[in-house]
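QA checklist item 7 of 12: single-chain prediction sanity check.
[x] sequence parsed
[x] length recorded as 79
[x] structure emitted
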Amino acid sequence: MGLEDRLGVPIGSLSGGQRQALTLLMATWVKPELLLLDEHTAALDPKSAEQVIQLTHEIVGRDRLTTMMVTQPASATAC
């Protein structure tokens, strides 16, 4: 997601997808017993959301993390 070229950049100037990816990387730097993800792609555009989901699957699979991911169905509407 282009983070490797942005090491010296303040976090606030990163895109939403880059911030979510960075947060995911920080949360898994030391292997957690349980990784809780609460709508971690909710505020992202579709392309960024897909990239974050792919990164999530890579990290969870590689590190064999027990994970609970809360998501909204794509067809959900506000009540």
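[x] summary fact logged: The two ends are 34 Å apart (CA to CA).
[ ] second reviewer sign-off
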